[in-house]
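Page 42, continued from yesterday. The earlier attempt failed because a stray header line got pasted into the input along with the sequence. Redoing it now with the clean sequence only.
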Amino acid sequence: MKGTRREFLRRAAIAGASVAAAELTTATRAGAASAEESANHNAPHRNRIAVSTYSFWHFRDEKVPIETCIDKAAAMGFDGVEILHVQMSSESNDYLQRLKRQAFVNGLDLCGFSTHQGFLFPDKEKRQQNIDHTIRCIELAYRLGVPTMRVNTGRWGTSKSFDELMQNRGIEPRLEGYTDEDGFGWVIDSLEKCLPKAEECGVVLGLENHWGLGRTPQGVLRVVEAIDSPWLQVTLDTGNFLEDPYDRLEQLAARTVLLQAKTYYGGGEWYSLELDYARIAALMREHDYRGYISLEFEGKENPDTAVPKSLALLRAAFG
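This time it went through. Structure tokens are written below.
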């Protein structure tokens, strides 16, 4: 009997220890999950930082190849690249897929596609040409695997050059005989015609605060809110509000899908702004902006030194 009792007690002790261990493991896992959930809930969000291929070119002299920009972006430590359409050397599918592969093997996202179009034309045929161009660019973005594409209202075209437009702080006279009301009607109608293709391809259009009727936050919002589609939101450029930028940036923050951040080391090509990126990052966090920050370096310093300095500035502010 004693031996049997001792065996019973031994087995009971082992069983008890196993149960206790199981309970401890379960409790430990539950505690770890709870701690992880709490940490994730409270952890500050880190925006990823991209660089626009425009940062290495500025429409000056010979085009810098997109391939070169991708290699430089990877070497400098960026997370992604925003491609400027007019900087591309081809629109062939072979070229597009080579760019996509090059970015992938370098660990980079192709996170944005920056295009040019304008709809401030009384001539319906000219507006249609720009609609067709925009639809073609949406298809290019789709083939590149890019999720968002910058679009513009366009400008009235009464300035002789972009340099003259910048000398006038982005303000230009309307076409004689036409009003802003006419212009907004053309822009809204034209962008509405682009949205079926954007939805089909899964490419969010971002209307930029980029001169013309998009020079003010009110102008951008008038178009975006009139169309009222999840496929048309805002590309927000920190450098295109030349006066009172912070209040104006905040007006568009809630609709922003891509933030373009300008820096001006060496003095700006057209102008320089003293932008407080800690303040901009704080206001974007208030609106729960979780998307990419895309650097647009627009200074005269060599990009090989100015772009890494700009990356460090943006990392400090946004991440």
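Notes: The domain at 47-318 is CATH 3.20.20.150 (TIM Barrel).
Reminder to self: strip header lines before submitting.
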